[in-house]
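Troubleshooting: if your tokenizer reports a length mismatch, compare your output against this known-good record of 153 residues.
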Amino acid sequence: MIDKSRDQFYMRLALEEAKEAIRAGEVPVGAVLIKGDQVLATDHNRCIGLNDPTAHAEILVLRKGGEALGNYRLNNTVMYVTAEPCPMCASAMVHGRISRLVFGTLEPKSGAVESKLHFLQDSSLNHRVNVDRGVLEKECTKVLKAFFKEKRG
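Known-good structure output:
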């Protein structure tokens, strides 16, 4: 059974990371990886700061989670992310074998979970990730829209 207040708690942590990304001049996406009640990792997009196109929030928390657990297989973990993951991040979640993804808002230009692709619903994959969306959706959408409105004038 899904605990809505628990999901909101961890999504708020992800939103705080997204706000850190804004302060760093990065696209405001934040992510949190948990196992049980333990936060394994939190981070935000760092592509610009690290000069690394793979430094998405989701990839960074997967890396940190693997280090924390001493294993690249992140069984029984849940990832909270403010925006729908891209194809790279969705694929990494399958390879890392996370159990569940919770995301806040759709990403109509590059979303690989519902918007552009339905990658995680592909039954031919070797691992299935359970997906829930819309947790704190308004707040997550607001952060992204405000960032791009300011960037694009």
